[in-house]
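Support case: user asked for a sample of complex input and structure output to validate their parser. Sending the pair below.
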Amino acid sequence: MAASSVFKAGLFNHKVAIVTGGGTGIGKAITSELLQLGCSVVISSRKLDRLESAAEELTQKIPSSSPAKVTPIQCNIRNEEEVKNLMASTLKLHGRIDFLVNNGGGQFSSPVNLMSAKGWKAVIDTNLNGTFLCCKEGLFICSYNAWMKDHGVGHYNNIIKILCITLHCLAVSNITHVVGCSVVISSRKLDRLESAAEELTQKIPSSSPAKVTPIQCNIRNEEEVTVS
Ligand SMILES: NC(=O)c1ccc[n+]([C@@H]2O[C@H](COP(=O)([O-])OP(=O)(O)OC[C@H]3O[C@@H](n4cnc5c(N)ncnc54)[C@H](OP(=O)(O)O)[C@@H]3O)[C@@H](O)[C@H]2O)c1
């Protein structure tokens, strides 16, 4: 039986999300939750047939009272033209984008000495460059203003608001126990950093020289960046 949401039904009624990699795994679970909350979701990845069958399955679970829809759109996030098409098609379909969940990507566990340059580049190209392209398109290029203007609709003062959620930070921190590299993790909230460091430290094999160190730093503050 599916777990019921902790959020109020209808919380995201009439909102629109794009979930990259939304046809499988974590992305599919996020999509399912958003749909249950009334949010329409565009799921995208490279394999259209997998997206289409996920969309069909997810559609059957949407409550009949909900305005939510799920639409599959093929897109390789490494390809700028395809990312542009994803954003433009979503705007054309729904007239808005509220959430962008940068979930599409992947990595493989490998000791660093066995990792090929090709494998490394593929992971970076997808997780880093792909995420960058989606954020760039979502935030700067497909501005709501431009779309509304092109379609002759009034009220185009409402700049598109996109909340980007990226799932790769966890992967980066997890690299510690994969490649045996020490990591300094930093953000503004020291207590959160300390508990993350404690959790990550427990996963480091006893044979590994790696350490995780939390250092508080607001990256907007040049002095803090220099000192840390
Ligand atoms: N599971 C974990 O423990 C874990 C831990 C840390 C981080 N993560 C990250 O969380 C995300 C989801 O993980 P998951 O476990 O749910 O894995 P998953 O089922 O393999 O999901 C990855 C999704 O990303 C899509 N994708 C891969 N390359 C893409 C590309 N170039 N363009 C567009 N879509 C692409 C895949 O679809 P196509 O093949 O159809 O493109 C797939 O739907 C991944 O980014 C992963 O790196 C997972």
